[in-house]
Amino acid sequence: MCQLLLDSSLRRRCGLRYMYKMSLAVSLRRALLVLLSGAIFILTVLYWNQGVIKTQAYSETQLRPYAQREHNQFPIPVEKSWTYKCMHDRCVRVSFNYKNTAESGKRVSFISCSMTCGDINIWPHPTIKSLVSAKTLRFSVEDVQLRLDTPHRAVRKQLKLAYDWFIKDLRQIQRLQFATQTAEAAAAAAAAAAASAPLSSEHTPPPPAPPAAAAESLFSNTFGASQRAGDLDGLKLKITVQESSEMEFNLDNNESYQLTTTFENRRLLAHITAHSYFGARHGLSTLQQLIWFDDEDRLLHTYASAMISDAPKFRYRGLMLDTSRHYFSIESIKRTIASMGLAKLNRFHWHITDAQSFPYISRHYPELAEHGAYSERETYTEQDVHEVVEFAKVYGVQVIMEIDAPAHAGNGWDWGPKRGLGELALCINQQPWSFYCGEPPCGQLNPKNNHTYLILQRLYEEFLQLTGPTDMFHLGGDEVNLDCWAQYFNDTDLRGLWCDFMRQSHARLKLANGNVSPKYVVVWSSALTNTKCLPNNQFVVQVWGGSTWQENYDLLDNGFNIIFSHVDAWYLDCGFGSWRATGEAACSPYRTWQNVYKHRPWERMHLDKRRRSQVLGGEACMWTEQVDENQLDNRLWPRVAALAERLWSDPNDEHDFDVVPPEVFRRISLFRNRLVELGVKAEALFPKYCAQNPGECI
Question: Which of 109, 298, 639, 663 has the fewest Cβ atoms within 10 Å of its own Cβ atom?
Answer without folding.
Answer: 298
